Structure formats: structure tokens, C-alpha cells
Amino acid sequence: MTAFSSWLRSFVPPPLTVSKREIFYSCLGALIGLMFAEWLSRYALGDVKLWFVAPIGASAVLLFAVPASPLAQPWSMIGGNLVAGVVGVFCAQHFAFNLGLGAAVAVATAIGFMFILRCLHPPSGAVAITAVMGGPAIYALGYQFVVFPVLLNSLFLLILALIFNNVLRHRYPHQIAKPARTTDPLPSERLGFTSHDLDRALNGFGELLDINKSDLADLINQAKVNSFQRQFGDVGCAEIMSKDLITVLPTTSLTEALTKLRELEMMALPVVNEKNQLQGLLSIQDFLVPRGDTTHIINPLEEYWAKHVIDIMSHEAPTVRAEQPIGDLVQLFSDQGLHYVLVVDAEKHVEGIITQSDLVAALFEMKLAEATNR
Predict the structure, then answer these.
(1) Which pLDDT score is estimated for 231?
(2) Residue 174 domain-assigned?
(3) Are 267 and 341 in contact (CB under 8 A)?
(4) Residues 143, 92: contact at Cβ < 8 Å?
(5) In angstroms, how far is the first alpha carbon of the chain from the final one?
(6) Among candidate residues 140, 167, 194, the one where a domain is terminated
(7) Phi, psi at residue 194, to the nearest 5°?
């Protein structure tokens, strides 16, 4: 009886780890997206067929509730619905003698093509069934059904999903992490699990998981960072940063800025305004790789050196907050290849800088203290 009860309990999923805010935005996105698709369809074609509400509604769940899912990406939706529509119309025309069999064949065939074309989208199964079982109004459309309502409604919903998710700063389309520039594993992988280990584990699992491989790797890396913070305490960035920081103004001449870099033997200088608020970063690379206007390459040298920091500086700089734990720095320095990060407050006032050397020294001291206390 215990085994049977355990089996029954497995029917109930664990609680979803999602905030109430995200639940609200998922519902709001689906509402706006479906209303937008319905309005545009009616405006463009003068009519909206209720028989297409089910597949589009299912797509809305994916696009607005789980936009990070591989099944919710633009090509998955558009490609999946197009494939299912074509297959569904074909089966409707060739299985008129048994529509139930035709619907089953349409869904099964659409799944096969979606796997091959890497556009698996569950709601597309409803599109295939709709094409077969939809009745005379759909049969009369023939392959036009693939364009309208399938493609048109899919595009309308996708447009809203792109706007809505990016306004909320969701990564949509969900980009795959860029491959490493070399064949070496990332620094964070050299003593832990590697991408090859993850591939072997996924292949051995034998089932399709509704999560991007790079997202899964990010989750594991974040779990390792959380474990690090739990074991070594919440040492903050403020405790290891250098506070005696040399800065330059946007109006500082290039000659003066380069002199500072050389005398201090630094690779970069923060650029701040008169209120010590961060404006950007000036690095040695900025002198070698020009940004924006490249006319100084052919101008006489005296014209180039008459320019100011604002003319060549980068307007973006890696930053952290003083209260952040140093565990947040590990991946920034190791996998992203940063050499330093600036510490700023909520108003972007520069408070200090942390270099790779600062982090290595801190980790060494923490490991030494751990060994001493054993």
C-alpha cells in the first residue's frame, strides 16, 4: 500500500519556483497577446474563427509563462505551426474516409517533422487536429489554412510576445551562450563538471527536457556559487575592494589620461563626472581600437592627442554593489574574462575597484582560515 500511495503522490507536481510577480505578468501577457492577435485578425480579415482559439491559447501559455523554454522560441512556434498546418491539411485530404485516423497520423507525422526541423511546439498538435477535424469551413480553405489563420495569428501573437517579454527584460528570444573562443574548458569547468559531462548526462537521461542546455549549466553554476557563499559566509565586495581609486573626467585630455595609465601601471581608469558618478571606462585598448569616429587614424598625431577621454572611452563598465557577496565575482572573473569590476552605489557613485588579484587574495585567506580552523 505504501508503494501505491507513493505512486499516487507522484501525480502531484512540486510547487513551482516562480514569484507572484511573474505569475501576474504571465497572465497579463497572455491577455494582451490574445486580444492583440484577435483584434489584428479581425481588422485585417474582417472575421476571427473561434476554431483557432485553442491552438493560439496554448501557444500563449508558452510564450508568456515560460518564454525561456526551447518549446516557446520564435522558430519553434512559427515553424511548428507551419509544419503542423501543412501536414494537417494533407491528412485531411487523404484520410477523408476516416478522420480519426487522419488526425492521429497528422499529429504523429507533425511531431516527427518538428523534431527534424528543431521546431517542437506542443500547441502545434492542436493545429494539426484542427486541420483534420475542423469541418467544411476549414476544408474549403485547403492549404490557405496554413497562411490564415495559422501563420497570421502566430505572427501576431509572436510580435506581442517579443515586445512584452523584452519590456520585462526577459531574454526572449532566449539566446544560446556563445561558444568559447578556444577548445579549453571554461575556467569554472576545469575543476568541476564540464560541458561534455553535461552532454553525457543529458544523452543518458534518454528524454527531452524542457530546458535549454546553457540554462541548465547556468543553474548548476549558480548552485555552486550559492554553495560557496553558504560555506564561506557572505564576505562582501566592500571588504576586499580598493578604495584609493584614480579617476579621470570625460574632459580630461588623452595625453593626461595616458600619462596616468603609464605612471600608475594600470590597464584602465574609471571615467566620472564632477559628482564622482560613473560615466564609463578608459582602457589601454581604447587607444588601440578606436570607437565611433575613426578619422583620428589618418589625422596628424597632434590632432589626435588634442582629443579628450570622452572621444574614445567606453560608455559601459562592469559594476557590482558594495553589499554583494564576493561569490558573485567568481564567474565574472573566470568565465567572462574580466580583469576588474568597479564598485558603485545606487546613484552610480564610484566607491572602489576589485581586481582579479584582490579576489584571489581573498579566496586564499578564506581557504587558509578554513584549514587553520579544522
Answers:
(1) 62
(2) no
(3) no
(4) no
(5) 47
(6) 167
(7) -110, 170
Task: Write down the pTM of the prediction.
Answer: 0.63
Residue 2 phi, psi (nearest 5): -65, -45
Give the pLDDT score at 8.
75
Residues 135 and 274 in one domain: no
Same domain, 145 and 35: yes
> Looking at residue 301, what is its pLDDT?
55
10-residue stretch averages of pLDDT, the chain, 374 residues long: 72 76 90 81 57 75 90 94 96 94 96 95 93 88 87 90 90 68 57 69 72 73 68 75 90 90 85 94 80 50 74 89 83 76 93 86 76 69
| Whether residue 155 sits in one domain with residue 24 | yes
Domain termination site, one of 120, 151, 167: 167
Is residue 309 within 8 A of residue 272, CB to CB? The reply is no
Q: 157 and 257 share a domain?
A: no
Residues 6+ apart with CB under 8 A from 153: 37, 41, 52, 56
CATH number for the domain spanning 282: value is: 3.10.580.10
Q: Which of 98, 121, 100, 101 shows the shortest CA–CA distance to 111?
A: 121
Angle value at C-alpha 344, between 342 and 345, nearest 5 degrees = 170
**pLDDT on residue 296:** 47
Q: How far apart (Å, rounded) are the C-alpha atoms in residues 83 and 78?
A: 9
* Grid coordinates of 199: 552532454
Place of cell 501576474: 24
| Total of domains in the chain | 2
Amino acid identity at 166: N
Same-domain status, 248 and 337? yes
Exposure string of 290-327, with b = 16+ CB inside 10 Å and e = fewer, is eeeeeebeeeeeeebeeebbbbbbeeebeebeeebbbb
Identify the domain containing residue 139 by its residue range.
20-167
